[in-house]
Design brief:
The chain is of the alpha+beta class. It is built from 3 helices and 7 strands, in the order ββββααβββα. The longest helix is centred in the last third of the chain and has 16 residues.
Length: about 130
């Protein structure tokens, strides 16, 4: 069996592995039986940046505005921010015979690389590809 084709809508950004930097659909894959899987960044992020931190003064900025700052994983991890809430990665599945998405409650954490690998492994397992 061949490797499944995964469409990536939001590739991993350099120095930005945390789910904080992503919103909505990350990737999806249509299986031969019509089942659709998608990897999403879900939830809401709200942080307060310390003075002197890149992006300081940008309150409730859009994801695009935040991506245009110099914020990185390293800056987020050194307590330059106060976290009110954060988002996470999750996988959702919709079968060909349903209009309803299942899943999404499975918190894959906030690490892009780990979440994408979990998504890729799930796709391969559902397709019967040896992993």
């Amino acid at each position: 069996m061949t490797e499944p084709e995964i469409t990536i809508y939001q590739p991993r950004l350099e120095n930005r592995n945390d789910s904080f930097f992503y919103d909505g659909l990350i990737a999806d894959c249509m299986l031969p039986d019509g089942t659709l899987l998608r990897l999403e960044a879900q939830g809401d992020s709200l942080i307060f940046l310390d003075e002197g931190c890149p992006g300081f003064g940008l309150r409730r900025g859009t994801l695009q505005q935040l991506q245009e700052t110099a914020l990185t994983d390293a800056i987020l991890s050194r307590n330059a921010v106060t976290w009110e809430n954060n988002n996470w990665f999750a996988i959702e599945i919709k079968t060909a015979d349903s209009d309803e998405w299942r899943g999404g409650d499975d918190d894959l954490g906030t690490d892009y690389d780990q979440a994408f690998e979990a998504f890729r492994q799930m796709v391969k397992e559902l397709m019967g590809v040896t992993v």
